[in-house]
Design a protein that fits this description.
Structural class: alpha+beta
Number of domains: 1
Radius of gyration: 20 Å
Strand content: 15-25%
Oligomer: single chain
Largest sheet: 4 strands, antiparallel
Order of helices and strands: HHEEEEH
Number of helices: 3
Number of strands: 4
Strand order of the largest sheet: 1-2-3-4
Helix content: 40-55%
């Protein structure tokens, strides 16, 4: 009467279904956290003058996955701010501008 599953097959099937979803979420979370940490590292490298293309190449060589981000924010000037949590970059020409290069101009435009 108080059984949650009809038999062991149903119980195992349910466990595997839940476990597969959890594994997918953990994989995506791992990539997002890695992307964020690379953006933080790029911000700390701000004293080294890099070109916009150089920033892109540096992120790519260090394992940044441009397919994963938390949100995209269009800016008033038509460019896009691509964010991984609170860190991000702005697409610009053939490269990118670090979010930290222009925070005073951009932070006020993002909804909280």
């Amino acid at each position: 009467m108080d059984k949650k599953f009809c038999n062991d097959v149903c119980r195992v099937r349910n466990h595997r279904r839940i476990s597969d979803r959890a594994k997918t979420v953990k994989r995506v979370e791992k990539v997002l956290i890695r992307n964020r940490s690379l953006l933080v590292s790029l911000k700390h490298r701000a004293e080294i003058k890099m070109t916009e293309e150089g920033r892109f190449v540096w992120l790519r060589r260090n394992g940044f996955d441009f397919n994963f981000h938390t949100h995209v924010q269009p800016l008033e000037d038509g460019r896009l701010a691509i964010m991984c949590f609170e860190e991000g970059y702005i697409l610009h020409g053939e490269g990118l501008i670090s979010w930290s290069d222009m925070p005073e101009k951009l932070l006020s435009r993002l909804p909280l």
